[in-house]
Design goal:
By secondary structure, this protein is of the alpha/beta class. The chain has one domain (about 5-205): TIM Barrel. The chain is about 40% helix and about 15% strand. It has helices spanning about 5-10, 25-35, 50-60, 75-80, 95-105, 115-125, 140-145, 165-170, 185-190, 195-205; strands spanning about 15-20, 40-45, 65-70, 85-90, 110, 110, 130, 155, 180. The longest helix has 12 residues, at about 195-205. It is globular and about 45 Å long. The two termini are about 30 Å apart.
């Protein structure tokens, strides 16, 4: 099995990782990011409104690629499938999660942080994965080290990445794109300054 998300992560440089606290912010925020050139969006399932936010964003922006994040068990995976996500991202994996993903043909980008976890995912048919938490797990140097013995794995590093450090990750042969939230300034979102968010998104899309 080739991970169906592999082509998706190769189609973009940056995936914004959104935490939606207010449902009314979902569509304007997504619009701002897409207008800035970021068309692939990950909505984390950390808030009560996350699934409704995904549905609203998919309805309002049919050309955007909307996925769910923080998929950690069968419940969050099935909820994501029912919301019609284009992809889903997990911070790590369990056998039950991988079995559920396989049973539902889920477009999962599973998380790994060590060579053993990477090898386990390859053994389960996943050649594209999230590297998380990127900065805390060794960052660029860890990914360079993994690429030697395990060159067939392709990564989307996420966690502690900034506009300044993203180019270092993107320069690696085994990195397709990066995930981050630096363009999602909390104060700007609270102020509903969508134009400013679009400018931050545009800077990220130029990486």
């Amino acid at each position: 099995m080739t991970n169906p998300v592999k082509n998706l992560i190769k189609s973009t440089q940056v995936i914004p990782v959104l935490v939606i606290n207010q449902i009314e912010d979902a569509v304007p925020l997504a619009n701002a990011l897409v207008e800035g050139g970021l068309n692939v969006l990950e909505v984390t399932l950390r808030t009560p409104v996350a699934i409704d936010a995904i549905k609203s964003m998919k309805s309002a922006l049919p050309n955007a690629v909307i996925g769910s994040g923080t998929v950690i068990d069968e419940q969050t995976l099935i909820s994501s499938m029912n919301a019609g996500v284009d992809f889903m991202v997990s911070p790590g994996t369990t056998k039950r999660l991988l079995d559920c993903a396989a049973a539902n043909n889920a477009p999962l980008l599973p998380g790994a942080a060590s060579p053993s976890e990477v090898m386990n995912l390859l053994d389960n048919g996943y050649d594209a994965m999230k590297f998380f938490p990127a900065a805390a797990a060794g960052g660029v140097n860890m990914l360079k080290s993994i690429s030697g013995p395990i060159p067939q794995a392709t990564f989307c590093p996420t966690g502690g990445i900034s506009l300044q450090t993203a180019p270092d990750y993107l320069a690696l042969d085994n990195v397709a794109c990066v995930g981050g939230s630096w363009m999602l300034d909390k104060q700007l979102i609270a102020n509903k300054d969508w134009q400013a968010i679009t400018k931050l998104a545009a800077a990220a899309s130029r990486l």
